[in-house]
Amino acid sequence: MENExxxxxxxxxxxxxxxxxxxxxxxxxxxMKLDVHPTHDPDYHVGRELYxxxxxxxxxxxxxxxxxxxxxxxxxxxxxxxxxxxxxGSKAIGIDKIVAKLGFAKEQVYAFxxxxxxxxxxxxxxxxxxxxxxxxxxxxxxKIVTQSVEDDGIYHGLKKAGLL
Length: 164
Fold this sequence. Notes:
Layout: E1 7-10, E2 15-17, H1 23-30, E3 39-40, E4 52-55, H2 59-68, E5 72-78, E6 81-86, H3 91-102, E7 110-113, H4 119-124, E8 127-130, H5 136-141, E9 144-145, H6 153-160
Parallel strand pairs: 2-3, 7-8, 8-9
Antiparallel strand pairs: 1-2, 1-4, 4-6, 5-6
């Protein structure tokens, strides 16, 4: 709040912002084309197990948080937003844990991504597919690049991967 950088807290049920409104929240959340928008509850994080938090600031403003909060990883996914994850947590690690628990072979795992927060996952997953509208880093990390999300990229990616 001192820096006027809002956050959105997320758990398995909801997402709540610590401020009633902010243009950075509208801009970045809007790119996900979700039917939900965070509502306001500045204390949502209190007494809850959170899965993720989003920090809304520009890249040049992020370093002070990285230096101050050593128990977290900051992974930028939008010009005005970064994921805040527990240190060492990631989509790739989550996928590895699920695959190990369910007993799948790595060759049976597929992942789609488009942002900087997907690069590690796309690098680690055996069958990785980047959206055509994704950032260059995601496309370079993936084994397959499909059409943009607006051009039925998931459908075309599934076809390119031989799943359809």
